[in-house]
Amino acid sequence: MNNHHIITIGTSAGGVRALKTLVSQLPKDFPASIHIVQHLPSESRSNLPQILNKAGQLPVVFAKDGEPIESGRIYLAPPDFHMMLEKDYITVIRGPRENRVRPAIDPLFRSAAVTYKSYVTGVILTGMLDDGTAGLQAIKTCGGMAIVQDPDEAEFNSMPKSAIANVEVDWVVPLNGIANILIERVRQIPPTITEIPENLLIEASIPKNGITEPEIMDRIGQPVFSSCPSCGGRLWQIGQDSPPRYRCHTGHAFTSSTLLTEQNEATEKALWVALRTLEERGRLLENMSKQYAKKGSNNLASIHQARSKEAFEHAILIRNLIHNLKDISVFSTEEKPEQEIS
Questions:
Q1: So which residues are the catalytic ones?
Q2: pLDDT higher than 60, residue 40
Q3: How does pLDDT run across 303-321, given as a tens digit for each residue?
Q4: 60 and which of 74, 174, 298, 337 could share a cystine (Cβ 3.0–4.6 Å)?
Q5: CA angle at residue 158 from 153 to 161, to 5 degrees?
Q6: What residues are paired with 168 via a beta bridge?
Q7: pLDDT single digits (tens) 89-102
Q8: What number is the average pLDDT over the span 253-271?
Q9: pLDDT tens across 181-212, in order?
Q10: Quick check: 329 pLDDT over 80?
Q11: End-to-end CA distance of the chain
């Protein structure tokens, strides 16, 4: 598979409709393999291969671990699995979530970049948040091409906007213009790239390697005074990329936006635990107060009743805090997406 063009596509909200349009415009003799990450719910079955097979002429399948890469085929990341590329074959793994999702776009883009270098083309379509931006940066670093759907026509424009703001993209085009660029792209012979930055090689291997030793993490980032909200492990800020990115040594990865969203959820979860504990404490102390009163231990009954009242008052404060908790969200300028049929 030397000198074989690799097309990688990442999309999220609104992606099914966008993908149907894109694959319908590709010819049946398209001389490259196409690898797609569409964010999918992990808990439900997806009919996306059937949907895209009906839309276009190229065969579409969920990728299988160890499957050889063939030109003229479209490979989809299965629900709840990352898809990564090796030389001549595909790896499908249930690795740590990146940007709060699995499958994530960045592992696919990054692995393709370090393996196929200048023969990789990365495409970012409609979607929310900023998954794919770091992966597209990796593709450009390794000599590949970056294409982004015009955010003015994208159904959800956060992902395209993030890519444009942080990557020197080659093309920003409407959805209907992407297929022609890809058809022309696969006819080209790109320049040869021989050296890949060490930090990219290290990071590309993290999803499949499991726990990364702290001294290795120190080579690609700087420790920060925050813990991973997914596992509680230590976090490193990776390089000097924009937007800032963070990783823990078990493999979870976040941009600033996704880290903030994860912390919001962790904060609310912790507050609900605190509320439940205080209310249980209040009921227990109240019951103990009644037992002491029956035994004539009025002093102990009074002390436990006071502590019970205090616990319930603290619980009210926590409940009010939960109700008033402000979720800092990137959805402020976009409506949250409805569930697509996939």
A1: 12, 39, 131
A2: yes
A3: 999 999 999 999 999 999 9
A4: 74
A5: 75
A6: none
A7: 999 999 999 999 99
A8: 90
A9: 999 999 999 998 889 999 999 999 999 887 89
A10: no
A11: 31
What does the pLDDT read at residue 332? 45
> The tokens 């609900």 sit on which residue?
272
pLDDT of residue 132: 96
Tokens of 323: 């109700």
Instruction: Tell me the three-class secondary structure of the chain, residue by residue.
Output: CCCCCEEEEEECCCHHHHHHHHHHCCCCCCCCEEEEEECCCCCCCCCHHHHHHHHCCCCEEECCCCCECCCCCEEECCCCCEEEEECCEEEEECCCCECCECCCHHHHHHHHHHHHHHHEEEEECCCCCCCCHHHHHHHHHCCCEEEEECCCCCCCCHHHHHHHHHCCCCEEECHHHHHHHHHHHCCCCCCCCCCCCHHHHHHHHHHHHCCCCHHHHHHHEEEEEEECCCCCCEEEEECCCCCCEEEECCCCEEEHHHHHHHHHHHHHHHHHHHHHHHHHHHHHHHHHHHHHHHCCCHHHHHHHHHHHHHHHHHHHHHHHHHHCCCCCCHHHHCCCCCCCCC
Tell me which of 111-125, 256-270, 283-297 is least confident.
256-270
Cα 132–Cα 76–Cα 166 angle in degrees, nearest 5: 10
The edge-to-edge listing of strands for the beta sheet with 120-124 is 60-62, 74-76, 33-38, 6-11, 120-124, 145-149, 171-173
28's tokens: 């049946």
Domain boundaries, the chain: 6-185, 259-330
- Answer whether CATH 3.40.50.180 is correct for domain 6-185: yes
Place of tokens 């205090």: 310
Q: Which two tokens stand for residue 237?
A: 């800020």
Structure tokens at 118: 């200048």
Q: Which residues have a Cβ under 8 Å from the Cβ of 107 and sit 6 or more positions away?
A: 82, 83, 84, 95, 98, 135, 204, 207
What's the whole-number mean pLDDT along residues 141-161?
97
